[in-house]
Each structure stands twice: as structure tokens, then as C-alpha cells.
Amino acid sequence: MNIKRIGLLVPSTNTSVEADFQQTCPEGVTTHSQRLWIPAGELTEDLLDEMNSRLEESAVALASANVDLIVYGCTSGSFYKGLEWDEGVVERIHAATGIRAFTTSQAVSRALQTLGVRRLSVATPYMAWTNERLRKYLEKLGFEVVNIESDERAAAGGHRFINDQDPAQIVAFASSIFRQEADALFCSCTAWRAREAADAIEASIGKPVVTSNQATLWHACREIGISGPIDGGGGQLLRR
Predict the structure, then answer these.
(1) Is 232 left (phi over 0), alpha (psi -120 to 50) or beta?
(2) Phi, psi (5° rounding) for residue 68?
(3) How many domains does the chain have?
(4) H or E element, residue 70
(5) Which residue of 72, 95, 143, 178 is most buried, as measured by CB atoms within 10 A?
(6) Residue 2 class from Cβ within 10 Å (0-12 exposed, 13-18 middle, 19+ buried)?
(7) Domain check: are 54 and 170 in the same one?
(8) CA distance 191 to 212
(9) CATH number at residue 13
């Protein structure tokens, strides 16, 4: 069997991206990660700047695993400075390694477009400033953000706490903030265990759910030539 290797660049505090990929990757696909150091504490622009300052060095280390693709697995770390910054992250990775790459934010955009989504409700575990940057990013891409709301239980605990929030809490929160005039719900943040909650949220709201890790896995599989349904849970996007 010809094994395909997906390389993951993840914040050092993030424990959800790798788990989601390991639980849902199709047979014949392996994942390999490199951690981007980020200090503990309240998530600020300075912390994201610190993490991204090591981007090229980390990408080169990951490329040494002979991966077929490099995924930048941090949603806020790519959208927080806008669309041009997001595109620049991909350019930096490719220039340093020669390997094709994409960001989680780009994967989310492609997933929403594939589902025919125009209007969005957005659930996050972010601070208010991060939500505002996300709104601007999505609107720049042409989406209408009906509402964007943060689960204060996750946001108040700092970015390390986000990994440990029970998916049942995410189901309850995300379902409660969804507006029926929206075409879909987007659950942002690769540290949030929203992929595990996606099926239950879809059952509750009756609309598609796109999550950061689900969309990233879906797009990574498309990029390496896998187009069939992906088992393991994670909403209708993976079942397509």
C-alpha cells in the first residue's frame, strides 16, 4: 500500500488536532506533527506572534519526515492578521520546504463553499478580540456572519483549558447560539473538541456543522487524493 503522510504544525499547547486526525484518518494515511511553541496564559496577539516567529524552522523540521503535505493547524494563528497574512503563512511554509501547504482557515473556507454556505452562525471558545478578527476574516471572504458568540467557560480558562472542555458542553453551547436563518454553524478553534460534537449538533439544529479540525482533515484528504466518505464521526462534511 502506498502510504500518504500528512504533516501537522500545531500550537504546543494543542492536544486536539492530533487526536482528531488519529481517530478519523482513512486507512493508508498517517499523520506526523511538529509543535509550534506558544507561551501559556491569556491568548493575545503577542502570543500568536511569538508562536509564528518559529514557523519556518518548525516547517523544515516537519518536512524531514518526508510528508506529502503540511497543514498549519491553528485557526486563530492564521486569520488574526487578515486574509493576506493567512495566504502569507502558506507561502512561508512552501518557500522553506518546497512542500504544498494550507491553513485551517483556508480549509474551513473551502468546506463552507463546498456546502453552499453563505450565511453563518459562529461558535468559538475565543476572547472578544479574536472573535472580531474572525468576523472580519469571514466577511472578507464573502460570508455573512449572522452572529458570532464565545463560550465564556472555555475563553476564561485560557488557551490551554480549551483542549479539556467536554464535547457535551460544546454541543449544548453551540446548539443554543445557532440562528435558524444561517445556512450552517461554524465551530472555530483546532484546540476545541468540536469535531466530536458535530454529529450531535447537526441533529439538534438540522443544519450542517463545520469545525476547524473536521474541515482541516477533509481538505487534507482531498489534497492527497482521497475523495470518499471518512468514517469516525464529524458531521456531514466528512460523510460526503
Answers:
(1) left
(2) -85, -15
(3) 2
(4) strand 69-72
(5) 72
(6) exposed
(7) no
(8) 9
(9) 3.40.50.12500
CATH code assigned at 167: 3.40.50.1860
- Residue 172 CB-density burial (10 A; 0-12 exposed, 13-18 middle, 19+ buried): middle
Of 27-41, 85-99, 180-194, the least confident:
27-41
Contact partners, residue 51, CB within 8 Å, separation at least 6: 11, 12, 36, 37, 38, 74, 77
Q: Tell me the residue range of the domain where 54 lies.
A: 4-106+214-231
Pairwise CA distance, residues 212 & 238, whole Å: 12
Looking at the structure, do residues 73 and 120 belong to the same domain, yes or no?
A: no
Q: Give the Cα separation of 171 and 150 in Å (integer).
A: 13
* Secondary structure class of 121 (helix, strand, coil): strand
Question: Do 13 and 97 belong to one domain?
Answer: yes
Confidence of residue 68 (pLDDT cuts 50, 70, 90): very high
| Residue 64 one-letter amino acid | S
Query: Model's pTM, two decimal places?
Result: 0.96
| Mean pLDDT, range 62-91, rounded to an integer | 98
